[in-house]
Amino acid sequence: MKAVIFDMDGVIVDTMGIHKESTINAFSENGFNITHKQISQFDGMKSSEAFKNLFETKADEEIEAMISKKYEFLKKRTFGISPYSGFLSFFFKLKNKFPLAVCSSSRRAFVEYILEQINERNSFKILVGAEDVSRGKPNPEPYLKTAELLNVLPKDCLVIEDSVAGIISAKAAGMKCIAVTNTFDRNFLLDADLVVDSLAEVSIEQAMGLFKN
What we know:
Elements: E1 3-6, H1 16-29, H2 36-40, H3 47-54, H4 60-78, H5 85-94, E2 100-103, H6 108-117, E3 126-128, H7 141-150, E4 157-161, H8 164-172, E5 176-180, E6 194-196, H9 204-209
Parallel strand pairs: 1-2, 1-4, 2-3, 4-5, 5-6
């Protein structure tokens, strides 16, 4: 294990529900009704791909306007947000010992905003957001891009995820993956190398042990 890459929403901060509420609000302002169930099928995916799946006939400009509105709601709702306690426990075991990165389906400006809220922006060497890749999760491109920027081979990277799409992306990239049950029941996360209910459960030795297999 030479680097650790964190997803953000649902791993570092409890924002998956806020994402859905912000999406519903953005759609509502544009005269469209959408349910939590409809949105949930796109958990872990970047908004541009999810929105295009939901509204195939919408022009790119309309999609972009709704995404911008969504992020306005998101920033208001996440001001002063605190990270998951389980994240902090694991994070402080890694900090200053391994290069750390965030690979998120959220836009990079929002990733930076959240990391500033939790006062850890400078702790991450690399940030990869939705606009940094042409294909989002579950495609492996986001994690392969992150490894490239870290200058670390994919096989030497550990990914921390909470979503099915994220796990598929990480494993397709050839990385080890720990999944935390913050968003999905563990039965949906079994393709990860390790599934935990809290990152506080994970020791450095346990994480590094995944690379011996």
